[in-house]
Design goal:
The protein is of the alpha+beta class and 274 residues long. It has two domains: 72 residues, 434 Repressor (Amino-terminal Domain) (Orthogonal Bundle), CATH 1.10.260.40; 137 residues, Umud Fragment, subunit A (Ribbon), CATH 2.10.109.10. It is 22% helix and 26% strand. The chain has seven helices and nine strands. A hairpin with a 2-residue loop joins strand 5 and strand 6. It is globular, with a radius of gyration of 21 Å. The N and C termini lie far apart (65 Å).
Length: 274
């Protein structure tokens, strides 16, 4: 493998792209530009800059394979480029970083500063301002089919986030910047996933592990299903609610995997309306 091929392989692996068209979407350039770079066997300098800004990738790792792969984060800075949209084909950068939003620390008048309640003896620690660098805000998104019908676009639900500890998120995702939240719809995956559950997806995890749950595009629909590789390119698509939704088979190239479902959450009581 030539040095150029090694660099291109690292770029495509880090961005989760498989074709020149997908890579062009990530970089915000024409597919012909990618083809020209391959003919010249030279990576343009602006590609390194874009990937550094959009994916926090270390230029030395891209160019020479030197660790670390990612640049160290800058706690407290809120002007970083959103790492998610370039990772999802067809979504433009919006100039914000959902991972470190400048959200205000709000006091709860019921519990803030209260160490104990003499009425029932329950001790509640006082609320202190958290270190925001320890947390990562994952955006809630909606998915829809692109105009060319070749990919799905994830668009952010403005201002809607789920906040997780960075350390925990890093242990279960390919990287925090690949994480998005979606709302489950339908009863096909009950009782594991119920209608209205909040799902955490790793859009950087597209390899099919038998028996695991994925969000995938099929036609114009977004589905949450268990996947199994049967033979070669043949996949079994299954629901947990098999009494109503029997499994079926499709070719791998008929599926567009958005990401692996790695966590779900739900309220066990109805929302208070008062």
């Amino acid at each position: 493998m030539t040095p150029f091929e090694e660099i291109l392989t690292r770029i495509m692996a880090a961005t989760g792209t498989e074709t020149q068209g997908q890579l062009a979407d990530v970089l915000g350039i024409r597919q012909a530009t990618v083809s020209e770079a391959k003919k010249r066997k030279s990576i343009p300098a602006e590609w390194y800059l874009k990937l550094c800004r959009s994916h926090n990738l270390n230029p030395l790792w891209l160019a020479e394979g030197q660790e670390p792969k990612y640049l160290p984060p800058h706690p407290g800075s809120y002007d970083q480029v959103l790492p998610l949209p370039p990772r999802i084909h067809g979504v433009a950068e919006n100039g914000t970083d959902p991972g470190t939003p400048p959200w205000p620390v709000q006091d709860d008048p019921v519990t803030s500063g209260i160490e104990s309640d003499p009425g029932d003896g329950i001790r509640i620690p006082p609320v202190t301002e958290p270190d925001l660098s320890l947390f990562y805000a994952v955006p809630m998104v909606k998915a829809h089919l692109s105009e060319d019908g070749r990919s799905f676009i994830l668009s952010e639900s403005r201002g809607s986030y789920h906040v997780f500890q960075r350390e925990w998120l890093a242990t279960i995702t390919s990287r925090p910047g690949h994480a998005v939240m979606m709302t489950a719809r339908g009863t096909g995956m009950e009782p594991t996933i119920r209608d209205g559950d909040d799902l955490l997806l790793d859009t950087g995890s597209k390899h099919i592990f038998n028996g695991f749950i994925y969000a995938l595009g099929l036609g114009e629909n977004i589905l949450v299903k268990r996947l199994d590789i049967i033979t070669g390119d043949r996949c079994r698509i299954s629901c947990d609610n098999r009494s109503e939704y029997p499994p079926y088979e499709l070719n791998r190239d008929q599926l567009f995997i958005i990401g692996q479902v790695i966590w779900c959450g739900r309220a066990l009581i109805q929302r208070r309306m008062d």
